[in-house]
Amino acid sequence: xxxxxxxxxxxxxxxxxxxxxxxxxxxxxxxxxxxxxxxxxxxxxxxxxxxxxxxxxxxxxxxxxxxxxxxxxxxxxxxxxxxxxxxxxxxxxxxxxxxxxxxxxxxxxxxxxxxxxxxxxxxxxxxxxxxxxxxxxxxxxxxxxxxxxxxxxxxxxxxxxxxxxxxxxxxxxxxxxxxxxxxxxxxxxxxxxxxxxxxxxxxxxxxxxxxxxxxxxxxxxxxxxxxxxxxxxxxxxxxxxxxxxxxxxxxxxxxxxxxxxxxxxxxxxxxxxxxxxxxxxxxxxxxxxxxxxxxxxxxxxxxxxxxxxxxxxxxxxxxxxxxxxxxxxxxxxxxxxxxxxxxxxxxxxxxxxxxxxxxxxxxxxxxxxxxxxxxxxxxxxxxxxxxxxxxxxxxxxxxxxxxxxxxxxxxxxxxxxxxxxxxxxxxxxxxxxxxxxxxxxxxxxxxxxxxxxxxxxxxxxxxxxxxxxxxxxxxxxxxxxxxxxxxxxxxxxxxxxxxxxxxxxxxxxxxxxxxxxxxxxxxxxxxxxxxxxxxxxxxxxxxxxxxxxxxxxxxxxxxxxxxxxxxxxxxxxxxxxxxxxxxxxxxxxxxxxxxxxxx
Length: 599
Ligand SMILES: *[C@@H]1O[C@H](CO)[C@@H](O)[C@H](O)[C@H]1NC(C)=O
Ligand SMILES: *[C@@H]1O[C@H](CO)[C@@H](O)[C@H](O)[C@H]1NC(C)=O
Ligand SMILES: *[C@@H]1O[C@H](CO)[C@@H](O)[C@H](O)[C@H]1NC(C)=O
Ligand SMILES: *[C@@H]1O[C@H](CO)[C@@H](O)[C@H](O)[C@H]1NC(C)=O
Ligand SMILES: *[C@@H]1O[C@H](CO)[C@@H](O)[C@H](O)[C@H]1NC(C)=O
Ligand SMILES: *[C@@H]1O[C@H](CO)[C@@H](O)[C@H](O)[C@H]1NC(C)=O
Ligand SMILES: *[C@@H]1O[C@H](CO)[C@@H](O)[C@H](O)[C@H]1NC(C)=O
Ligand SMILES: *[C@@H]1O[C@H](CO)[C@@H](O)[C@H](O)[C@H]1NC(C)=O
Ligand SMILES: *[C@@H]1O[C@H](CO)[C@@H](O)[C@H](O)[C@H]1NC(C)=O
Description:
Layout (H helix, E strand, L loop, with lengths): L4 H14 L9 H18 L9 E3 L14 E10 L8 E5 L10 E12 L7 E6 L2 E7 L8 E8 L4 H4 L6 E7 L11 E11 L23 E5 L11 E3 L6 E5 L5 E12 L12 H6 L13 E6 L2 E6 L28 E5 L13 E8 L5 E11 L7 E9 L3 E9 L2 E20 L2 E20 L4 E17 L7 E19 L4 E20 L2 E20 L2 E17 L2 E10 L2 E8 L11
Parallel strand pairs: 1-7
Antiparallel strand pairs: 2-9, 3-8, 4-7, 4-9, 5-6, 5-8, 10-18, 11-18, 12-17, 13-16, 13-18, 14-15, 14-17, 19-21, 20-21, 21-22, 22-23, 23-24, 24-25, 25-26, 26-27, 27-28, 28-29
Helix pairs in contact: 1-2
The site of one 2-acetamido-2-deoxy-beta-D-glucopyranose has 3 residues, from loops.
C-alpha cells in the first residue's frame, strides 16, 4: 500500500478521532498501536531516578482583569471522568451563592482545573448551566508522568443566570472518555466559580447603567438554544452533513429590547481538519472517496424562522491531538482550551418574535461532514419599565455566498484555490421605555485558501485566511451620534506537512503550523470611544518518526507572540517551547509608547 500523506492523515487523525466512538472498532487496532507506542515515549524518555512533577499545560492568553476584592468562591464539582462513553452528562445542583457577604459582583470567573496521567486522547467537553453553555473546551493529552492544567474563563456575561435566586439550576458537564488498558488517562476535574464583589469607588459602578447598548451591560435573561438535558451526549446539536438542520423552539418575554445570540461551534471526526479537506473530484479521481472531502470551505448559518440572521466562519482551532500532538505540550493551540463563541445581533429581528409565540432558531453548516457540535445562548435585555415592547424589521439583505474553486490536479499532485465572500445586513427598530431605537447589524466575510499537494500527495500545504467583520450601529432617540460596536477578525492558518518516506512502512512526518487570531474592536463607551487590538500568532514545527506503522519518536517546538493593546492597558507575551520545555517567556503589561501603535 502506498502511504500517501493523505492516507496518513486519514488513518492517523480520522480513525484516531473515531476512537471517541467505539462503533468503528474495525479500524482501532492499527491506530491504537500507532498512538500508544507514540505516547508511551513519555515513559521511556523520563529519568526514572528523579521523580517528576506533573507538567503544567496552558494556553497563552491575556489574564482576566480582576477587581481588587476578595472573591467569594464556590466549588461546584469534583469528578473523575473515566468511563463516560454513552453516559449522560455529569449533573450537579447549582444554587446561586448565598454565603457571600456581597450580592453585587463585577466579575465572575469559571475555573476548570484538571489532572491526568497515562495515555488519553483529546476529548471535547462542554459545561452548561440550565442548558446555557458556559464553556466549550478540549482536554489536554496526558503523559505518563502526569499533567495538570487549568482554564479560567470570564463568565460575567452570564451574570443573570449565575445569580438567579428564583430557582435551583442544573450544571451539566459532558466529557466523553473511554478508559482501558491502553488508554489509561482518567481526567480528575474540579470546577469552581469565583464571584468578585464590586470594588467601591472604581469606574466599574458605571456599568450599572441600564441601557444595554451603552456599556458592557449583561443580559437580564439568557435562554438556552441547545438540546434538552435527557441525553447520553453533550447538549450541543450534532450536524452531520450539509443538508442537516438543527432546530430549536423558543419563546421570549414580550418586553425584550435587545437580543444577541451567542453561538458555540466545534468540528470533529471527518471535519476536524475541514480546512485541509480536498475537493471530492480529486478524491474520486484518486480512488480515495473514504477520505474526508467537500473541499476546505465551511460556513455555519443561523436562521430565525427561515430567515438567515447571521453566519459564523469559524476559527480553525486545532485540538491537542491535532497535526502532531507534541506541538501542544505544554503550550496548547489558540482557542483549544477555551473555544471562541460568536455573537450575532438579533435586535433588528426582535419585532418579529415579540408576539409571545414560539419561534425557531436553526443551524446548518455549508459543506459539512460528520460532525459539528453547535448550540447557542440567547442573551435578552428586558425593559423593566414596560410589559410590552414593539418593533419592526426594516431591512434584511442576505447576499448569497459567492464561492469560487480553481482545481488543477494530476494524480495526487494538485493545486486548489478556493475563495468565498458573503455579507448579511439587517436593521430594525424596537420601541421600549428607552424610546425608539434603531439597530443595524452587518456581517461581512472573506475567505481565501490555497492548498497544494505535491510529491504524489505526500506533501500538503494549506494557506487559509478568513476575514470576519461584524458591525453593530445603534441609533438612540436622544443622541445625534450612533453607538458603535464593531469587530474585525482575521483568522489565519498555514499548515505544511511533509512525509519523508524511507520505504512504505518507515517514514518521517515533518509539519509546520502557523495559527493567527487577530481581533480589532471599536466600541462606544460612556467615556468616549474604546479601541483594542489583538495580534496573536503561534508558530509550531514538529517531527514524528514512524516505523512499521508505529510512531517511535518525535518532537514539537512552538513560539507564540501575543500582543494586546488598548487605551485601558496592554498585554504582551512572547514565549517559546521545545520538547515539553519552556525556552523563554517574556511578559509585559506596559504599553510601549515607542512601538508602532495602530491608533
Ligand atoms: C438535586 O436536588 C434534587 C432535589 O433537592 C435531588 O433530588 C437531586 O438528587 C439532586 N441532584 C443532584 C445531582 O445532586
Ligand atoms: C434550592 O435548594 C435549596 C437546597 O436544596 C433549598 O433550600 C431552596 O429552597 C431551593 N430554592 C428554590 C428556589 O427552589
Ligand atoms: C444528513 O444527515 C441527516 C441527519 O443525520 C440524515 O437524516 C440525512 O439522511 C443525511 N443526508 C445525507 C444526504 O446524507
Ligand atoms: C481507481 O479504481 C479503478 C477501478 O478499481 C481503476 O480502474 C483506476 O485505475 C483506479 N485509479 C487510480 C488513480 O488508482
Ligand atoms: C421608530 O423609528 C422608525 C425609524 O425612524 C420609524 O419608522 C418608526 O415608525 C418608529 N416607530 C414608532 C413606534 O415610533
Ligand atoms: C508529482 O509531483 C512530484 C514532485 O513533487 C513528481 O515527482 C511526480 O512525478 C508528480 N506526479 C505526477 C503524477 O505528476
Ligand atoms: C499565505 O497567503 C498569503 C496571501 O493570502 C500570503 O501573503 C502569505 O505569504 C502566504 N503564507 C505562506 C506561508 O505562504
Ligand atoms: C518548516 O519550517 C522550517 C523552518 O522555517 C523549514 O526549514 C522547513 O522546510 C519547513 N518544513 C515544511 C515541511 O514546510
Ligand atoms: C526531549 O527531551 C528528552 C528528555 O526529557 C530527551 O531524552 C530527548 O532526546 C529530547 N528529544 C529531542 C528531539 O530533543
